[in-house]
Each structure stands twice: as structure tokens, then as C-alpha cells.
Give the backbone structure.
Amino acid sequence: MITDSIKSSVQGWKAAVARLSLASVIALQALGPPAVWPQESAQPRIDEETEKQKKIYQSRGADVPDGYVINRGLLDYAGYLPSGFCDALEKLGTQDRWLDVGTGAGHAILDYYAPLNAVAPAGKCARAGGIASAVAMSIEDRRTDAWHRLAARLGERIRYVSGKALRHYSVDELGKFSIITDVYGGFSYTEDLSRFMEKVLSLLEVGGHFYTILQYVHLVTAKDSPGTEYQTELVDAAGRGEKVCSWLKKSACVQVTCESKGTWEPPTEQISIRKVCSDVSVARMKLLKFQAGNPPNRRFQLEP
Ligand SMILES: C[S@@+](CC[C@H](N)C(=O)[O-])C[C@H]1O[C@@H](n2cnc3c(N)ncnc32)[C@H](O)[C@@H]1O
């Protein structure tokens, strides 16, 4: 459980976020430990780094590192995710299901079910309505009293799953979803990007959408300037730079749309993926480097 002092600083942070422009919000996310590769030092062993990463997930109270934010609400999601997210959420019906991968404390889902006047009424996504059911997923259990109260009220309409990464769940365990979201969750943190994407696509209904973001990446619309460093770096089989969106577009049965705002710092790709048929496949990536962090630094290479 987070302490009262952390709670109040978190509340202060949330209030500040509501007031700031999104460009500033993105800049806030960039604060904290260095977000780029230490070019000079040798890459520490991946297994040591994944152990360090587990400690970040398990951190509690004052030990939670700066920048490991677990309480973004629906208004924050509306700002970070691609433009179609709120419309899609608002259109969900009683039979639809929403999965939030890397939900932290599940605040976005709490907001979805909150009475309209309790959630930043003028904000985007405020009319979302709480009609569909939702699954919140986090490696570590960060449920709060507010979550437990809501779960007691809504019963099986909401579920919080924890204890393992997305790729270790089966479709039988979770079912299928109309919308899957990920805001600085598994897509930013996984050490197995292709299996993560395969699992997301297998959990989506045909016609469903995955909405996510990735920061410090090679944007599809931008040219590299010398010395640019990335937090998530992809290379093709020959070692040449590969953009995350070009890689995603190699997948079968998906429509990938990438947006970015020139003013956002760090450079952040907003990604929307629609599953258009059931026979999905994802071009496989192997992990070359992993350095624990929030999010971690990662380097992947396309397998031939
Ligand atoms: C920085 S928190 C973000 C929480 C929330 N989305 C927010 O914006 O407040 C990262 C979350 O991603 C989760 N996570 C990281 N890797 C994951 C994976 N491979 N599968 C599922 N969840 C993952 C963590 O357990 C944690 O809940």
C-alpha cells in the first residue's frame, strides 16, 4: 500500500497533470533516471537486469522509484492514447470487454465506472459510461481500497489479474476483448515484444482495437538526427534501424495507424492497431539488450 504522504503527492501530481498541457505531461514522464543507453559501458547481463526490473514492480511506498507512475486516470489515458480511443470506449456496449494491460492501480478503469460528475466532467472520455466489463492487468498487485469497493459493487463486471506478464496468460483464462489499452504498461516494459504483440492480437476480437504509446522511439514521420538515442530501439536482421510502426505493419491481419505530436518530448509514437481477420502473425524480434528502468531500455532485432 502506498503511504499517505505518497498518496497526497500522487494526488497533487494528478491535479497538476489535469492543469498542464499534454506536452508538459509527456515531459514529466521523461523525468527520472536517464532514459537512454549508456553508450560507454558494457551492457550488463540481461538476467541481472530483469531481476532489477522485478524489484521495481515489487516496490512499495517510498521505495517506488520516481517516474514509475501507477495511477493515471481516464483523462490521462485520453491524452496519451491515439485519437480514436475515447470514441471507441464510448461505443462499447454491455457485451463488450476492455482489457487494460499494465493497469497499475487501475485508476482508468475506476474512472470509467465512476459517476459522471466525479471524473473531470469537462474531460475527454468522461462520457464513457461504464457499460462494458473490464479486466485490469498488472504484474504486481496494486489494488487499492477504492478498487475493492468497486469490485464489491460491480461483481464479475470487473476483474483484476496479477502475478505474471501478459504473454503468460491464455485466451481461455482471459477471454476476448473489444478494446485493449496499454499506457506505459507491458508494451513499454516487456522483454519479449513480439510475443507480447502476438498475445494482444490473440486476445482481440476481429474488429477490435489495441491502443498504446511508446516513448523515445524512432518515429515513423521523423528522420534520424545524428546522436539520437532511443529507449526502445529496433533493428532489422542486418542491424539497420527499424521503426516500431514499420515492424508492426509487417504483421498479418492488422491495420496499424501511428500518430505523433511534433511538440511532445520525448518523441512518442501513439499507436492504434485494428485486428481485421483472425489469422494473425507478428514478425519475430529477439532481445539484444535490456536495462531495468521505468520504462526499461531495450534493443530488439528482427529475426530473419
Ligand atoms: C508504470 S505502470 C503504468 C500503470 C498505468 N498504466 C498508469 O499509467 O498509471 C506499469 C504497469 O505495467 C505492468 N506491466 C509491465 N510489464 C507488463 C507485462 N509484460 N504484462 C502485463 N503488465 C505489465 C506493471 O506491472 C504495471 O502495472
